[in-house]
């Protein structure tokens, strides 16, 4: 019953064929068709701007005070594209292959190939918009390496790539707003999808300043609402990132795919205490030049700089000589956890490893000396260090500053302490090749959907996917749907489907406000996060997951009896906004555990302790689990699972190896 | 780094909404760790206020990494607090010591009306961008990214301007509530790139006109904006803006 609608033909021709044959809407009709875009991060802003340019009537929504503040702004390291500017053997096929392998053979070939195919256009588009990517002295674009890959295909703007890309998309969006093709609703939260006869016809939103509910009609609705990593409470996501929009869609009939696939990022600043509200990423790009190590001696309490080289265990270089410090994220995270669990962790909590820049500083310093026609052997150590620090500062300065502000330690002098943290969710709403969910006319783009990254995402590929979806995929696929919508009259928002949806939202808000319990939303969120991290985090097992399901059900019950939300409904009330989001996380968390329990294999970021090789690597069971697990909501704690089989026609799945 | 705990007095601006008058209220917070961020200290206080049945203090924030530009507290007379080149969310409690009294206010500027407590409306910035802060290129029109080499120094200077996070601290710091640093950053970001050339003149004229319409004050070169900008956007961009504006005014018509 799940039809991914993958076009026939060879892998390289599918998208070309699709574009050549999909239905089109003529310009006069586009002006009559309304498209709702929820979320204006990279995926949403690029989609809204592009659809506006095409002439559709677009309404766009975000919960921040400006589209420029979406969580995409925080992306640091870079964006991939198969440009092969470095002449190092890159191609669409290689980007496709790396992504499939990186995802541990749990993604759809056709989608991933399309992603690789449009990746080059993204860079061109962004450059044309004035995105100031890093450049070489010759004036051409610069590249760096990211994990799980042996070519240099990552484009970047210092450690602020997401910011620069989002500003580009934001400016394109603001231009459409000024031209009147897009109407923007800031500080508005979507709280319900309105459907009629299994088709999306609009949304209900709440104005976060006044608390007022509004109805919006759309011939198509696009959800571009980001990932749900905050179900773990502590993550690298922005504080406001949440699952609510996707979850409402799920309850309105959109299936949720692979909810348990979570990415734990290996290099984040470790937790420092109970007060911690979020975790900060130290970009993967730092693994280009930094070396990761722990002391060879258990419980070594010496300062890092006092431990000589021979007494350090560069465990990634030791275990994975071919990829070294640039193994994929899931592999690097598990390796860090293994060392810490075995008693080799550093810092006061012993839940950290070192990320060391000393050798990079020395290497770059020597290169600088050579550049000036001198022999590094004759330069003083101090001079080399000063020059080397200069180079490192240019490449990673903002990240080093951020580390210093948070920890109070100077990473140019002493190795950084890092530990894995929740970062990204590969799971999300199920979509077909056209990015349509199982609800007709309801689309899902960017991190919110499940496509493209399988069980583990490679670094610098989320920005690529968000912009691919928004700039280059949806304009075609939504047109193919809207071409038939021209025969349907707009549905007035007085229609009973809107009436009922608004009532549902209203009732729920009233119920929440009337609980008047004793415990703050934050406390429930923290407790949920702890259950998820302990039992559905970096390593999972049957017993733990079964316990987690019961604990989450219990916690949810408590929440609906005891949560305290101050203030009123019809005012600016962040606690009420948060309560609605945490209530949804309390449902999602259960489904994630069910999915993790059900997937009795290890793949990518999903590591079941019962399923590992002798060396502790993830062990897949392709015969049983080569599918997307797709969940239909049936009622509280009640889901039905459908499988979308994954057919590998081009790539041959093997045991992933980075040795 | 030595860790320590501290007790503090907070004097915080409370204002129910844009229609009511606000006032300062005093709060005492205890056992605050020097490792906490400034906003985490507010989290602790808010948790307590909720438990005591009070209304928590509203403030804007999202990334808590110094990049989204959402956080906006005026701390002890300085937007984003005492640290140089820093946002409110990146300020940590080791900047303070036991017994300190800290005064916290919203951004104050007529063009940024208060929504509640420490939250203000900064949509005027979006409207300034709408007036011309972009390059008019539709999706699909681009040539190859390397078709046009750009001098690295120019690209770097453009990037340095593009780092602006749109937080509005420059306006809050300025006695005239001028938005010139914000505006100059955007104009410079685009004017320094060859892609920005075709609309160079109309952009600066339209954006300045919109800024005036929003009611931001004029620039008298006090330099308070540069001193407070969390991204250390240089005041030299304002000179560049003035130049662009003059040239554009002289050559259009
Ligand atoms: C710290 C960090 C660094 C990263 N670095 C990189 C990197 O270097 N390279 C890379 O490729 N990826 C990176 N990623 C991942 C990447 O940034 C994200 O996956 C991506 O930006 C998500 O974009 P999006 O458009 O899907 O969603 P988001 O940017 O999260 O946008 C979501 C939008 O939806 C809106 N929204 C959500 N819910 C609602 C609702 N109910 N009603 C109305 N609006 C709503 C929000 O307001 C927002 O506008 C990083 C992630 C983090 C956390
Ligand atoms: S110029 Fe600086 S202070 Fe002003 S908005 Fe930009 S980042 Fe904020
Ligand atoms: S919360 Fe994003 S910059 Fe401070």
What can you tell me about this protein's structure?
The complex is a heterodimer of chains A (659) and B (253). The longest helix of chain A is centred in the middle third of the chain and has 27 residues, at 381-407. Chain A has 659 residues and is an alpha/beta fold. In chain A, strand 7 (199-207) and strand 8 (213-217) form a beta hairpin. Chain A is built from 17 helices and 21 strands. Chain A is globular. The mean pLDDT of chain A is 96. Chain B folds into two domains: 5-115, Beta-grasp domain (Ubiquitin-like (UB roll), Roll), CATH 3.10.20.30; 123-251, Orthogonal Bundle (Fumarate Reductase Iron-sulfur Protein, Chain B, domain 2). Chain B has eight helices and seven strands, in the order E-E-H-E-E-E-E-E-H-H-H-H-H-H-H. Chain B has helices at residues 38-51, 123-130, 152-162, 169-173, 180-191, 200-213, 224-228, 236-251, and strands at residues 5-14, 23-33, 74-75, 78-79, 101-105, 114-116, 119-120. Chain B is elongated and about 60 Å long. The structure holds flavin-adenine dinucleotide (FAD), iron/sulfur cluster and FE2/S2 (inorganic) cluster. Residues 61-64, 66-71, 87-89 of chain B line the site of FE2/S2 (inorganic) cluster (FES).
Core attributes:
heterodimer; A: alpha/beta; Flavocytochrome C3, Chain A, domain 1; Methane Monooxygenase Hydroxylase, Chain G, domain 1; five-stranded parallel sheet; five-stranded antiparallel sheet; 17 helices; 21 strands; globular; B: 253 residues; alpha+beta; Ubiquitin-like (UB roll); Fumarate Reductase Iron-sulfur Protein, Chain B, domain 2; 2 domains; two-stranded antiparallel ribbon; 7 strands; 34% helix; 14% strand; binds flavin-adenine dinucleotide; binds iron/sulfur cluster; binds FE2/S2 (inorganic) cluster
């Amino acid at each position: 019953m799940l039809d991914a609608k993958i076009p026939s033909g060879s892998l390289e021709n599918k998208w070309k064929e699709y574009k050549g044959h999909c239905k089109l809407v003529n310009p006069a009709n586009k002006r009559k068709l309304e498209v709702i875009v929820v979320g204006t991060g990279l995926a949403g802003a690029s989609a809204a701007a592009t659809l506006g340019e095409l002439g559709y009537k677009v309404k766009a929504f975000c919960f921040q005070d400006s589209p420029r503040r979406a969580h995409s702004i925080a992306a640091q390291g870079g964006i991939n594209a198969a440009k092969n500017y470095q002449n190092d053997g890159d191609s669409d096929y290689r980007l496709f292959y790396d992504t499939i392998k990186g995802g541990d053979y749990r993604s759809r070939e056709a989608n991933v190939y399309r992603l690789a195919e449009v990746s080059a256009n993204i860079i061109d588009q962004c450059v044309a918009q004035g995105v100031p990517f890093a450049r070489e002295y010759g004036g051409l674009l610069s590249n760096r390496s990211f994990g799980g890959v042996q070519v240099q295909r990552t484009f970047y703007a210092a450690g602020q790539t997401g910011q620069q890309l989002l500003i580009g998309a934001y400016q394109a969006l603001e231009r459409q707003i000024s031209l009147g093709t897009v109407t923007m609703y800031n500080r508005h939260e979507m709280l319900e999808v309105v459907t009629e006869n299994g088709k999306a016809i609009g949304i209900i939103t709440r104005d976060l300043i006044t608390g007022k509910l509004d109805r919006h009609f759309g011939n198509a609705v696009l959800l571009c609402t980001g990932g749900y990593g905050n179900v773990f409470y502590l993550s690298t996501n922005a504080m406001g990132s949440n699952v609510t929009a996707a979850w409402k869609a799920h309850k309105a009939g959109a299936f949720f795919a692979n909810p348990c696939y979570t990415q734990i990022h290996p290099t984040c600043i470790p937790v420092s205490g109970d007060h911690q509200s979020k975790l900060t990423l130290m970009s993967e790009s730092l693994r280009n030049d930094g070396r990761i190590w722990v002391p060879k001696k258990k419980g070594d309490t010496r300062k890092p700089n006092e431990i000589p080289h021979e007494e350090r265990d560069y465990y990634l270089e030791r275990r994975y000589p071919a990829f070294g410090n640039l193994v994929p994220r899931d592999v690097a995270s598990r390796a860090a956890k293994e060392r810490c669990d075995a008693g080799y962790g550093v810092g006061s909590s012993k839940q950290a490893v070192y990320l060391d820049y000393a050798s990079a500083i020395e290497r770059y310093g020597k290169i600088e000396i050579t550049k000036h026609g001198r022999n590094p052997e004759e330069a003083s150590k101090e001079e080399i260090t000063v020059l080397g620090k200069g180079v490192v500062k240019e490449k990673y300065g903002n990240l080093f500053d951020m580390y210093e502000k948070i920890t109070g330690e100077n990473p140019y002098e002493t190795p950084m302490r890092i530990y894995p943290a929740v970062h990204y969710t590969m799971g999300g709403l199920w979509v077909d090749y056209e990015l349509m969910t199982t609800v007709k006319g309801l689309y899902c783009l960017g991190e919110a959907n499940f496509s493209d990254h399988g069980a583990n995402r490679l670094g610098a590929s989320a920005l690529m996917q968000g912009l691919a979806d928004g700039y280059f995929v949806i304009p075609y696929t939504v047109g193919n749907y809207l071409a038939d919508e021209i025969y349907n009259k707009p549905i007035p928002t007085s229609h009973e489907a809107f009436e009922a949806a608004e009532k549902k939202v209203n009732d729920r808000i009233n119920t929440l406000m009337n609980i008047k319990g004793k415990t703050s939303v934050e406390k429930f969120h923290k407790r949920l996060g702890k259950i998820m991290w302990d039992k559905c985090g970096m390593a999972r097992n049957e017993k733990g997951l079964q316990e987690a399901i019961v604990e989450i059900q219990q916690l949810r019950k408590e929440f609906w009896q005891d949560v305290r939300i101050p203030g009123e409904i019809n005012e600016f009330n962040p606690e009420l906004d948060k309560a609605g989001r945490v209530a949804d996380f309390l449902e999602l968390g259960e489904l994630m555990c069910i999915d993790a329990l059900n997937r009795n294999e290890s793949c990518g970021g999903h590591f079941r302790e019962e399923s590992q090789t002798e060396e502790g690597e993830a062990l897949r069971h392709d015969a049983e689990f080569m599918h997307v697990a797709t969940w239909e909501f049936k009622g509280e704690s009640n889901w039905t699972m459908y499988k979308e089989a994954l057919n590998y026609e081009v790539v041959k799945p093997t045991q992933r190896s980075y040795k | 780094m030595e860790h320590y705990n501290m007790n503090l007095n907070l004097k915080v601006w409370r204002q129910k909404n844009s229609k009511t008058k606000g006032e300062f209220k005093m709060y005492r917070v205890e056992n605050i760790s020097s490792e906490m961020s400034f906003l985490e200290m507010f989290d602790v206080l808010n948790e307590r206020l909720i438990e005591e049945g009070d209304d928590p203090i509203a403030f804007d924030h999202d990334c808590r990494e110094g990049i989204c530009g959402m956080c906006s507290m005026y701390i002890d007379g300085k937007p984003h607090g005492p640290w140089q080149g820093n946002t409110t969310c990146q300020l940590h409690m080791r900047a303070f010591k036991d017994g300190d009294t800290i005064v916290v206010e919203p951004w104050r500027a007529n063009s940024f009306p208060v929504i509640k407590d420490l939250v203000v409306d900064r949509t005027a910035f979006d409207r300034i961008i709408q007036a011309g802060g972009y390059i008019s290129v539709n999706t699909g029109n681009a040539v190859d990214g390397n078709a046009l080499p750009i001098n690295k120094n120019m690209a770097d200077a453009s990037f340095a301007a593009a780092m602006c996070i749109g937080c509005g601290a420059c306006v809050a710091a300025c006695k005239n509530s001028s938005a010139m640093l914000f505006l100059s950053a955007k104009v410079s970001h685009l004017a320094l790139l060859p892609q920005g050339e075709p609309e160079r003149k109309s952009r600066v004229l339209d954006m300045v006109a919109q800024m005036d319409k929003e009611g931001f004050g004029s620039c008298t070169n006090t330099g308070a904006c540069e001193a407070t900008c969390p991204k250390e956007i240089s005041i030299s961009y304002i000179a560049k803006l003035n130049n662009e504006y003059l040239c554009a005014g002289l050559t259009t018509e």
